[in-house]
Amino acid sequence: MAEKMQEITKGIAESMKLAENNDQPAAMLPELSPGRAPYAGMTLEETVAELKQHPMFMTDLDADNVGDNEELAAMQALAFDGTPLENAANFKGQGNECFRGRRWADAKEFYTQGIALLVAEERRRAGLSSEEEQQQAQSPEKSEPAPTDASQEGQPNTEDDADYNRDDPDEVRKQKQLLEQLYGNRAACHLELRNYRSCTSDCAGALRLNARNVKALYRSAKALAAVGRVAEAVDACARGLAVDPDNAALRAVEREIAAQISAAAAARRRDEERAEQARHRERLRRAAVEARGIRMRTSGPGTKPPDMEDARVQLVPDPSDPASTLAVPTLLLYPLHFETDFIKAFNETETLDQHLAGYVLPPPWDRKGLYSTAAGVECFAETAAGGLVRVGRKAPLLKLLSGGAVEIVDELLRIYVVPKAKADGWVKDFKAKKAAEKGGGSAPVAAPAA
């Protein structure tokens, strides 16, 4: 017993001595190669950073330094040290590991490398078959396939593989099965990444190899439904259920597509109802304008109508009610001062005075007081013939419009506002300009619509 206690005490003492001689926790870290041994003064973080330079511990890759990393170059060479089937299976395994970690983009890249190897084999076999057919047509003797470069990536490059038959039927069958799986797995990555077009393309690749691949049909249906190609999604779903009627995932997609079809149909009905309501309101509006004898037109080609957002001649308060009254967007122009005011909805029952005296006058820019009151201004509207008509301030708007002399152009009525003291001079200038435009004569000034 005493000897046992001495051994324990000696062991504890040696452990304590060892701990005193090791200030850094390097002994707890894996041993590095001589070329990568950490410096004596390295911190734990610096040592970990150094470890990440080794391929076994890498979490990211600097493309600029790949050529300087011998260990990485060796591991990359090992990735292709086998048959195309073995190498593609290796890429599939790495892709599956990334997929389980929800690293969709990384998984996609691994699957892509595996696909590239097996597609190259498919193309090689297709080219070889074509050459054999041509040679057999020229000679009755069966020609031997040309030797291939064994140094190519994914091809056998060791003496142990000297007897490897690349075109063995069983090997070809396994390659096709693996290629089908790789296409399906990459389609799953594209679906997670919302690359729907690429997803359907990879599903097509898998279905080319196996038309009964339910997973490919499921993913194809999901991707097609996501981009609104509903009819094709329905077809893919139906084909999958024909193979596996009890597939829960496909049944769920079938319900999603049915709901999507129902929602689209409901949206179309709403759009059609809105369009019909808009047509009905337009018919009522035109009938109201025609019944009142109001003249409306659009400006000629090459003329850009003013942007008034949603302002337009319309029935208010209910555009669908024939008993509603008309409201007209109206632009008040102050030609002597190059200013304007906009009345969005001038009702046919209202007078100009209600707007001028109510809130328009005096305008904030009128420092001389020329437009201080409604009584101190004269108002004019241009007629369809190019003349002017005085607008009575106390007459309802309908009286001005119903005669047909004044027209509404591009859904907008224009009224000129001039100080009473300067009205005659402005009218004379207006007539002179119109006469010059017409090449002679003078534009008449009609009596006020009051």
From TrEMBL:
The keyword Repeat applies. GO terms for biological process: protein folding. Gene3D superfamilies: Tetratricopeptide repeat domain. GO terms for cellular component: cytosol; nucleus. Residues 126-170 are annotated as: Disordered. Residues 318-430 form the Cns1/TTC4 wheel domain. It holds the Pfam family Wheel. The keyword Nucleotidyltransferase does not apply. Keywords: Repeat, TPR repeat. GO terms for molecular function: Hsp70 protein binding; Hsp90 protein binding. CDD domains: CTWD_TTC4. Belongs to the TTC4 family. PANTHER family: TETRATRICOPEPTIDE REPEAT PROTEIN 4 (PTHR46035:SF1). This is Cns1/TTC4 wheel domain-containing protein. It comes from Lasiosphaeria ovina. The lineage of its organism: Eukaryota, Fungi, Dikarya, Ascomycota, Pezizomycotina.
